[in-house]
Structures are given as structure tokens and as C-alpha cells.
């Protein structure tokens, strides 16, 4: 009457059932996870734009920087994966181009700091400033805090 019990693991059927259940859960959750990741990337770009707007305002608080801009239009362009570029009335500004560029990049910390990588629309994200007014394209302006 001594029966040997040889239950040392899971049966193949049990393992297949567990794998099947995990696959069903994965398929059901994958679209939601992808959506969360995309939303976080867009949020990152929106935060970058908000930070750049603030940096323009801080730079313009400097008297010399404000005088350097005058009535010209400032355009900051964030191309996908590229460093931010800044133009003043169509002329590209580097870190030492004029008093505004010096102050702006001083506030930013570095010309290589800001990139847009996942904007909602195709094409670059642009921030335009002229005479106290900002316009933003490439991300939803309603999402950007002023």
C-alpha cells in the first residue's frame, strides 16, 4: 500500500495555462501602457516649452538684453532630437551673439539643454515672442502654463 508520490513540479498543462493568461493580460494592457508612455513624452515637451518661455521672460528682465531685442521677433525652434536654436528677426543667435542671447543662454544653463523629442504635431516646436506676446506651435498651447 505504499504509493510513491512523485509530485515535483507543475504539469505542462498548468504552465501553458499560466502563460496563456499572462499573454491575454499583456495584450489587454499594451495599448494603455503605450498611451501612458506617449503622454509622458508629450508632457516632457510641454514642460520644455514652458521652461523656455520663462527663460525668455527672465532674460528680458535684464535691461541690456531687453534693449538688444527691441521690437524684433525672437523665435526659439525645437526640432525633433536637435538642440534648441534661437533667432532674432531671422538671424541665428549663438551664446555670445548679443546681450539677449548671452542672458538667455546664461539663464538656460546651456545651448544643448533643450530638445523636443515627442511633440504632438509633425514638425518642430516653435516659440515666438514679440512685443510681450508669445505664440507656440507644435504643442497644444492650452497645456502650457503661463
Name the descriptors.
146 residues, alpha+beta, 5-stranded antiparallel beta sheet, 3 helices, rod-shaped
Give a short overview:
The chain is α+β, with helices and mostly antiparallel strands. It is 45% helix and 16% strand.
Shape annotation: rod-shaped
Structural class: alpha+beta
Order of helices and strands: HHEEEHEE
Number of strands: 5
**For the report, how would you describe the main beta sheet?**
5 strands, antiparallel
The percentage of residues in β strands lies in: 15-25%
Computed Rg: 26 Å
**Number of structurally distinct domains:** 1
Mean pLDDT: 78
Number of helices in the DSSP assignment: 3
Residue windows where pLDDT falls under 50 for at least 5 positions: none
**Spatial gap, N to C terminus:** 83 Å
Biggest sheet strand order reads 3-2-1-4-5
Helix content: 40-55%
Walk me through what this model shows:
The longest helix is centred in the N-terminal third of the chain and has 49 residues. The protein has 3 helices and 5 strands, in the order ααβββαββ. The chain has one domain. A hairpin with a 6-residue loop joins β1 and β2. The chain starts with 11 loop residues before the first helix and ends in a 9-residue tail after the last strand. The model has no long low-confidence stretch (mean pLDDT 78). It has a 5-stranded antiparallel β-sheet with strand order 3-2-1-4-5, with helices on one face. By secondary structure, the protein is an alpha+beta fold.
